[in-house]
Specification:
Elements lengths: L8 H24 L3 E3 L2 E3 L4 H13 L4 H14 L6 H22 L9 H14 L1 H14 L8 H27 L9 H21 L8 H34 L9 H60 L2
Antiparallel strand pairs: 1-2
Main location: membrane
Subcellular location: Cell membrane
Organism: Streptomyces parvulus
């Protein structure tokens, strides 16, 4: 096995930059494969590279910035001949995750997402606030370069902002979870996990492709996943349902049939957003409660052991007295 730590530091940084850029590019191409057209404007309901960029920064620090910028440039180049506006778009897609990372660090964010404050910070600082930068700079550069009609400004900006935010809400927690994931010991919960996975995989497509709007039926499955498995159950379920909803919306069938382009985008973004918020915040609340309960139980156990030790010491002193 090759020991990377023995490599020269510039080589390690170069390899890391290329790796981040390659993964960013792959995530970008994946996001572009699920485009929607709304009133003539092309939008991506979920933009995975933003979630990937924020996760890399949280896990490995600022040394990932060059890889993020290079990956954003590769995605733009893959779309055609880049223009002057590409500089602003690359800058926005790089600065926004960095600002997200800095704001989360400033409030003491924990990558374990074990507290409600961590979930709230990721939603309102890491996603909703920081992604105003990427959407604002991107749309602004398109308008300045006459690549976007002023009449489409509001719609494109909203779709860009929500797509970037959804990438942070759904992709970042999943990557943070996978980074610290460990195979749990065999237990009865394995059977429940497998059963829940099969049920979600079977029912969610039926709900999405139903000609009757039954999107609300996804939420009981999501809540069950969160209640039993917290983040490990909620985020994959939410991401699976969001991706499938995007596919159905592109096909203009099921719950998204007989809708205009604007109505399709608004319904899809609202659905995806509520899924991500529910999974992230509810799992954070439950995890925090479980950790508090374990702390109380541990403190009670230590108190019992201390009392037992004191009683044992008292009995020995009484037995040894004349």
């Amino acid at each position: 096995m090759v020991d990377i730590r023995a490599w020269p530091r510039p080589v390690v940084l170069l390899c890391g930059t290329l790796l981040v850029a390659g993964v960013y590019y792959a995530a970008g191409r994946l996001g572009l494969s699920q485009q929607l057209t709304a009133d003539g404007a092309v939008v991506t309901p979920i933009w995975p590279p933003t979630g990937l960029a924020v996760a890399c920064l949280l896990l490995f620090g600022a040394r990932c910035v060059p890889g993020i910028a290079l990956g954003a440039l590769l995605v733009i180049v893959s779309l055609g001949r880049p223009g002057v506006e590409s500089i602003g778009i690359v800058a926005g897609n790089t600065v926004a995750p960095v600002c997200s990372y800095l704001m989360l660090r400033a409030v003491g964010f924990r990558v374990s997402l074990s507290r409600l404050r961590d979930g709230v910070a990721l939603v309102f600082l890491g996603a909703l606030t920081a992604m105003l930068i990427s959407s604002g700079m991107g749309v602004g550069m398109l308008v300045v370069s006459d690549k976007l009609p002023s009449g489409d400004l509001g719609l494109v900006w909203l779709a860009w902002w929500v797509g970037d935010a959804m990438g942070v809400l759904l992709v970042t927690p999943l990557l943070l979870l996978l980074y610290r994931a460990r195979l749990p010991p065999a237990s009865a919960r394995w059977a429940e996990a497998v059963g829940l996975t099969v049920l979600v995989a079977f029912l969610v497509p039926l709900i999405m492709y139903s000609t009757v709007s039954l999107l609300f039926l996804v939420y009981p499955l999501l809540i069950w996943s969160v209640l039993r498995f917290q983040l490990a159950g909620g985020i994959p379920c939410a991401l699976y349902a969001s991706v499938l909803a995007t596919v159905v919306a592109r096909e203009e069938v099921g719950a998204f049939g007989r809708l205009s382009d604007i109505e399709t985008m608004m319904r899809l973004q609202a659905f995806n957003g509520t899924l991500g918020l529910t999974a992230l915040l509810l799992s954070a609340v439950i995890t925090e409660q479980l950790n508090t309960r374990r702390s109380v139980e541990r403190a009670c156990q230590e108190l019992v052991e201390a009392l037992q030790h004191l009683n044992a010491g008292g009995s020995q002193s009484q037995g040894g007295s004349p």
